[in-house]
């Protein structure tokens, strides 16, 4: 039986190996796409033996699913840290939207989109991803509510947060092949004003009952 | 030299062959994805000889680009026809958004997304798609302005139309792996009210100058 002193370093080595494999997987997906990402290429890139790689992640589906889970969690921690450093005040919402927009145009979004699209026509990957997609969606929603510091029990807040995330997903796709940053910045400039109005208790969106006749 | 009477039927046959190839291409992309779509599979599905297929579309990039162009144009005609049948009045905007949402969750969107994602890591396809993406984006914007019957010279209208299309693109991606229609319907219900307010001259979005202090 290993002693406590040998067991801990081995666990640490395992975790470090796993982390290297998962980072290399996302890098591969970004550089080569789903079809260009093979477990062999990932192991080589991570500097991990094929045996160790198969020990931790026996299939490509297991590897890519673990990679997106791991990096989504890490990205959430980073977003919380970045948001904690933001000044309070009316400009905070703008900065939070900018942080989220950066996440939806960054490498993790690109890697996830490669998987989402591939999973459409790959039954094994699809089975692995559908529960993950639901979980990531819920966590992203909760994170956004937290970063914006809003109360979801208020009418309209949940819908405004959802629309923001769906809009950002659309903007992420629009940025895939060409630099869409100028158009995105202008569009988000307007969206931030709308979102502020939707999230402010005394300046909510117009409802059918309150709309002026026209 | 062919006479006028033989030339016309041959042109018609060519057009029919092309149309069959382009429909089969989109069907293949939807069913098998980018990597499962080969020119051989498309020719077989269309019932067109390999020679005829190569004559019309010598490369896979040429075939898929032509397919998305052709079907986007056809879809635009269909959307105009469907929109022309809509009753005037306050519910028209809701129905136009529903038509657009159906387009962004339909087979053509799925096929286009396969290409957009594949083009990220395929230089030949990327070169072919970047100009097409810009053109499709502009035409979709113009079509939406036309279907909504709004005047883009009014402040805020252009941004509201853009946000609607980016939101719908995001909703299209959210629908890739699982049926997102219930969540989408609820979200669009709210969005339609916001969009109506943004597009109505006397009930525009709040601007920084008009926002109440808080």
UniProtKB/TrEMBL annotation, chains A, B:
| Coiled coil feature spans | none
List the source organism: Micromonospora chersina
Q: Keywords, A to Z? A: DNA-binding
Tell me the DNA-binding residue spans: 38-57
Cited PROSITE patterns: HTH_TETR_2
**Alphabetized Gene3D superfamilies for the sequence:** Tetracycline Repressor, domain 2 (1.10.357.10)
Q: What molecular function does GO assign, one term?
A: transcription cis-regulatory region binding
Please verify whether the record's keywords include DNA-binding: yes
* SUPFAM superfamilies (UniProt xref): Homeodomain-like (SSF46689)
Query: In terms of domain of life, where is this protein from?
Result: Bacteria
- Protein name from the UniProt record: Transcriptional regulator, TetR family
| Pfam families on file | TetR_N
Residues of the HTH tetR-type domain: 15-75
Keyword flag DNA-binding: yes
């Amino acid at each position: 039986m290993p002693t406590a002193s040998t067991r801990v370093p081995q666990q640490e080595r395992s975790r470090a190996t796993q982390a290297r494999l998962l980072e290399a997987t996302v890098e591969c997906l970004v550089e080569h796409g789903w079809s260009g990402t093979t477990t062999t290429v990932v192991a080589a890139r991570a500097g991990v033996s094929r045996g160790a790689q198969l020990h931790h992640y026996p299939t490509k589906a297991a590897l890519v699913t673990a990679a997106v889970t791991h990096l989504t969690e890490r990205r959430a921690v980073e977003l919380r840290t970045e948001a904690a450093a933001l000044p309070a005040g009316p400009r905070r919402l703008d900065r939070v939207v900018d942080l989220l927009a950066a996440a939806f145009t960054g490498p993790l979004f690109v890697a996830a989109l490669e998987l989402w699209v591939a999973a459409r026509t790959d039954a094994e990957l699809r089975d692995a991803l559908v529960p993950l997609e639901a979980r990531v969606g819920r966590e992203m929603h909760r994170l956004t509510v937290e970063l914006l510091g809003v109360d979801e029990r208020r009418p309209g807040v949940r819908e405004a947060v959802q629309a923001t995330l769906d809009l950002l997903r659309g903007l992420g796709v629009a940025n895939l092949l060409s630099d869409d940053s100028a158009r995105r910045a202008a569009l988000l400039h307007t969206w931030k004003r709308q979102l502020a109005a939707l999230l402010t208790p005394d300046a909510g969106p117009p409802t059918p009952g309150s709309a002026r006749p026209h």
